[in-house]
Write a structure and sequence with these properties.
The radius of gyration is 23 Å and the shape is globular. It is about 25% helix and about 25% strand. The protein has 3 domains: about 210 residues, Phosphoenolpyruvate Carboxykinase, domain 1 (3-Layer(aba) Sandwich); about 60 residues, Phosphoenolpyruvate Carboxykinase, domain 2, CATH 2.170.8.10; about 190 residues, Alpha-Beta Complex (Phosphoenolpyruvate Carboxykinase, domain 3). It has an 8-stranded mixed beta sheet with strand order 1-6-7-8-10-9-4-5, with helices on both faces. A 6-stranded mixed beta sheet has the order 14-12-13-23-27-24. It has a 5-stranded mixed beta sheet with strand order 2-3-18-21-17, sandwiched between helices. The protein starts with a helix and ends in a 6-residue tail after the last helix. The chain contains 14 helices and 31 strands. Strand 19 and strand 20 form a beta hairpin. Helix 9 packs antiparallel against helix 10. The protein is an alpha/beta fold.
């Protein structure tokens, strides 16, 4: 019924613009004042305050009985909506689109590997949204008929600036603080392969919806989806970097000696790694052209406007076209969307072999985790389940001490399935391809945040390079029995005393208390999140504090 409604709209609308070239879409965006043209040729745009980032409370999954055995409804990010409400919203959205003077349609795919590239048709009334799909999604490969999803395309409708008529949905949508129903929805119907962004003008809503869809479908095809960046050295060896915001994922994976395969989202199948996207959606806040020149050049280098395609979102822009990336009055989440080809050292094909090394990144503000440690398969599955980092004091009102944050698989909001579908796949693939996993702490040493100091990035890079170049395969390790990790006793270019964090604290008792407290947080969270989950006993035994 949903696709029939869509086809009826296409058949009766006077102006459906399908698969326009980048130049044509850009002209529409400029002509209808969707963005300001900057001197460098990029397009700068602003969204309403409620659309400066994702809206997790309005992001929902249609609850079909057929999906109950797969979706983890115990996860706080997996919110449900009933099929009838979704279908009603879908019809409302298409009716709203039908009333617009023109509709833009793009046919792209998610996934660089043609064996599982997922066709996605995006329908919107906004040219800038269409341009975003050209940046972020990939063109249809010539052999798309060979994809396992060739006859299972996904359809995404995006109505960014129109709001839901909440009078029709009392008691059926999220209740806001003032008691009214929310006028925004980001909804996924995995059974019928439909996505809906209604009322959210944040470009990332469409990107993350499709990422979540891939994360749902791929494990059932024996493919592991990962929220990670990936690069490749000169010998073709692939490394993956998993980490939450603030851990250094983007910075550490950018290396002049390693070609970037992708920045954010990948799949791991029987042939190796494949990037989901064709572009980057990078944060701009505090972007330093000296420390991150590649991103700065990708966004701000001068190019002819109609061929450029860079979208700058919610960054402070002045009438003369200058920007202030350090001004966070609009949002801390200013972003730029640009094609991957605007970076210098990239592998545009977007695929690589099986990863030889995986790096889990954490920024431990407690100062008790080693700066680098090696994980065996069971330990890696445990840390993959936990996705640990610290939320720092001062980042939010009322936070006076660092707060422990867990985000399963380093991307909890986008992982819809039950945990076993992801962790079991990781363990099996690690063992099958002899992949090494290291936990790298980019946080504090010598004490917690406020007392110790942030680990110098030059030392982190030295440890990282030693791990990637297999130099840490040749050293002795000491097992940390509290956190169940293996700590190298030496590392080229790194003072040996800092490898074991207890040696960097002036007060050993204070270190022991802090470490025990963090381990207890791990244990308590694991019991709460996975107490009833199907987790192998050998993996459970690796939880810190147990």
């Amino acid at each position: 019924m949903a696709i029939e409604t869509l086809n009826k709209m296409f058949a009766t609308h006077p102006e459906v613009l399908t698969n326009l070239k980048r130049t044509e879409i850009t002209r529409y965006a400029i002509e209808y004042r969707e963005a300001l043209v900057m001197p460098c040729g990029a397009l700068s745009t602003w969204t309403p305050p409620e659309s400066t980032g994702r809206s997790p409370k309005d992001t929902v999954i249609v609850r079909h009985p057929e999906l109950e055995e797969y979706i983890d409804w115990s996860s706080p990010n997996n919110l449900s909506i009933d099929p009838d409400t979704f279908y009603s919203l879908w019809v409302d959205a298409l009716t709203t689109l039908w009333k617009k003077p023109r509709i833009f349609v793009t046919d792209r795919v998610i996934g660089a590997d043609p064996d599982y590239a997922m066709p996605v048709k995006t329908i919107t009334n906004y040219a800038l949204t269409s341009l975003f799909t050209l940046n972020m999604f990939r063109p249809l490969p010539q052999n798309i008929e060979n994809s396992i999803f060739a006859d299972k395309p996904f359809t995404l409708a995006v109505v960014p600036y129109d709001k839901i008529d909440t009078s029709r949905y009392e008691g059926r949508l999220r209740k806001c603080e003032d008691g009214s129903a929310s006028d925004m929805i980001i909804a996924m119907d995995f059974k019928n392969r439909l996505g809906l962004v209604y009322g959210s003008a944040y470009c990332g809503s469409a990107k993350k919806l499709m990422f979540t869809a891939m994360n749902y479908y791929l494990p059932h095809e024996n493919i592991l989806p990962l929220h990670c960046s990936a690069n490749e050295d000169r010998h073709g060896k692939v490394s993956l970097f998993l980490g939450l915001s603030g851990t250094g994922k983007t910075t550490l994976s950018a290396d002049r000696d390693r070609a970037l395969i992708g920045d954010d989202e990948h799949g791991w199948d029987e042939d190796g790694i494949a990037n989901f996207e064709q572009g980057c959606y990078a944060k701009l806040i505090d972007l330093d052209p000296e420390k991150e020149p590649e991103i700065h050049n990708a966004v701000f280098n001068a190019r002819e406007t109609e061929e450029n395609g860079v979208i700058i979102e919610n960054c402070m822009t002045y009438p003369d076209g200058s920007v202030d990336v350090f001004d966070d009055r609009l949002t801390q989440n200013s972003r730029a969307s640009y094609p991957l080809r605007y970076l210098e050292n990239v592998k545009l094909k977007g695929t690589g072999t099986h990863p030889s090394t995986i790096i889990f990144l954490t920024a431990d503000a407690n100062g008790v985790l080693p700066p680098i440690s090696r994980l065996n398969p069971e330990q890696a599955m445990l840390w993959f389940l936990m996705g640990y980092t610290s939320k720092l004091a001062g980042t939010e009102t009322g936070i006076k001490e660092p707060q422990t944050t867990f985000s399963r698989f380093f991307g909890q909001p986008f992982m819809a399935n039950k945990p076993k579908y992801y962790s079991d796949l990781l363990g099996r693939k690690m063992k099958e391809h002899d992949t090494r996993v290291f936990l790298v702490n980019t946080g504090w040493s010598g004490g917690p945040y406020g007392i110790g100091s942030r680990i110098d990035i030059t030392l982190t890079r030295a440890m990282l390079n030693s791990a990637l170049e297999e130099k840490l395969d040749e050293v002795e390790y000491t097992e940390n029995n509290l956190f169940h990790i293996n700590v190298p006793d030496s590392c080229p270019g790194v003072p040996s005393e800092m490898l074991h964090p207890e040696n960097t604290w002036s007060d050993r008792d204070a270190f022991d208390k802090r470490a025990a407290a963090l381990a207890k947080e791990f244990s308590d969270y694991f019991d709460k999140a996975y107490g009833d989950a199907e987790i192998d006993d050998a993996v459970r035994a690796q939880c810190p504090g147990k």
